[in-house]
Write a structure and sequence with these properties.
With about 425 residues, the protein is α+β, with helices and mostly antiparallel strands. It has 2 domains: about 5-190, no CATH class; about 200-410, Heat Shock Protein 90 (2-Layer Sandwich), CATH 3.30.565. It contains 11 helices and 7 strands. The strands form 2 sheets. It has a 5-stranded mixed beta sheet with strand order 3-4-5-7-6, with helices on one face.
Length: about 425
């Protein structure tokens, strides 16, 4: 019997995951850890019943020996009883195991398993009836007659069972044979595929959450790296402005406080790394651009266009600010003369769901070698992939005549 066949994504010769097993166990009960009606399940189960019926064999031998003082009779009776019980316990499951290793379709396999268990019930009844009759006719009755405990007259006067008694007895025996012969395992077998699929979905969900947490952590680390650098540069500029232009220094402090007021509460909140709205992210970008405008003076201007009906739309945190910072650092600061940053959002309609399209455009020096491959952009791409499973994207393109446009498009969800 092959034991390496695969069924529904898992091997029949390997133990099932703990959350798929109906009742995990060890030792002689370890058969429960394997796919029902697989070869390891069958042989471990047969070993369990072998031990149980082996103990029963000993009890039968001792009982018959004490009653008859005939060792041969005791051994024969115990052996035939042991064999009969093992056939009852293994005929149906053995046939069902053979069926499951054929590689049939699920529908055909399930029908085959049910018929295999019914076959086991029929075989069990035949074996039980044959063994019981042989023990009684060949060994028990002759010895009872020899001792005078049983006569032909007594045998003749035995009441014959009625059809009702036979039916009840047959139904009772069939139930015993079915339970002993694997019927109790049928429910676990029929639900095994569903439990396996649920386990796969749970594993995928756990992996997805882990990937999301990892992406959130990387993005948070990136933000932690950016914020001190930005803050130190601003404070260094303030030191010079305090002496040279106190009014501008005061404006810079006001703008810095405004930016920190928009940023720090969100970063400290328990869900700050997980959820935010488009309005919150636009406000962080606006306060940052206002601060940079104070620092850069006439070299920077900006505009923001956020429709009122999109303000409460959910949007991933810390992405837009990274792109705005890139527009300043890589687009406008290297440029001689004034520059402009435009931040806007619109709703477009994809075939299935509405899409939020957020654009950050600048008229700076444009894309240069290596642009689009930094750590910040890599984190944004990972974040989009983790959150939206390929349904979101970021595009960065150079504009004719200079400048860069970055677009993030995500499926719109209810706030």
């Amino acid at each position: 019997m092959p034991v390496t066949r695969v069924r529904d994504g898992y091997r029949l010769d390997q133990a099932l995951p703990a959350d798929v097993v109906t009742r995990s166990a060890g030792g002689l009960m370890s058969y429960r850890n394997f796919p029902v009606f697989s070869a390891p399940w069958f042989w471990r189960r047969a070993l369990l019943f072998g031990v149980i019926f082996g103990l029963f064999f000993v009890l039968v031998v001792i009982g018959v020996l004490l009653a008859s003082h005939d060792l041969a009779l005791a051994l024969v009776t115990g052996t035939m009883t042991f064999v009969a019980f093992m056939v009852m316990a293994c005929a149906g499951p053995g046939a069902a195991t053979w069926v499951r290793h054929r590689g049939w379709t699920m529908r055909a396999e399930r029908v085959g398993v049910v018929f295999a268990l019914l076959f086991g019930v029929v075989v069990s009844y035949g074996i039980d009836a044959t063994v019981s009759e042989r023990i009684e006719k060949t060994y028990i009755e002759p010895r009872m007659k020899a001792t005078g405990a049983l006569t032909e007259e007594m045998i003749a006067r035995r009441p014959k069972p009625t059809p009702a008694m036979l039916a009840v007895n047959l139904a009772f025996l069939a139930a015993i044979y079915a339970m002993l012969g694997g019927a109790l395992a049928l429910r676990a077998y029929l639900g095994e595929k569903q439990r396996w699929l649920e386990s796969l979905r749970a594993g995928e969900l756990t992996e997805l959450r882990a990937r999301q947490q990892s992406a959130e952590l990387r993005l948070g680390v990136l933000q932690a790296q950016i914020e001190p650098h930005f803050l130190f540069n601003t404070l260094a500029s303030l030191r010079a402005l305090v002496r040279q232009d106190p009014a501008r220094a005061e404006a810079t402090i006001d703008a810095l406080v405004d930016h920190l007021r928009a940023t720090i509460p969100k970063l400290r909140s328990s869900d700050g790394a997980l959820a935010s709205t488009l309005a919150q992210q636009f406000e962080i970008c606006r306060s940052y651009l206002a601060l940079m405008q104070v620092r850069m003076g006439d070299r920077l201007s900006f505009s923001i266009d956020l429709p009122d009906d999109l303000r409460d739309a959910p949007f991933p945190p810390l992405m837009l600010i990274s792109l705005v910072e890139n527009a300043i650092k890589h687009g406008l600061e290297p440029k001689s003369g004034p520059g402009h940053v435009r931040l806007s959002a619109v709703r477009t309609h994809a075939p299935e769901v509405p899409v939020l399209r957020v654009e950050i455009a600048d008229d700076g020096v444009g894309l240069r070698d290596g642009a689009g491959s930094g750590l910040g952009l890599a984190n944004i791409r990972d974040q989009l992939q983790t959150r939206y499973q390929g349904q979101a994207r970021i595009d960065i393109v150079g504009l004719p005549g200079g400048g860069t446009r970055a677009v993030i498009a995500v499926p719109e969800a209810s706030p």
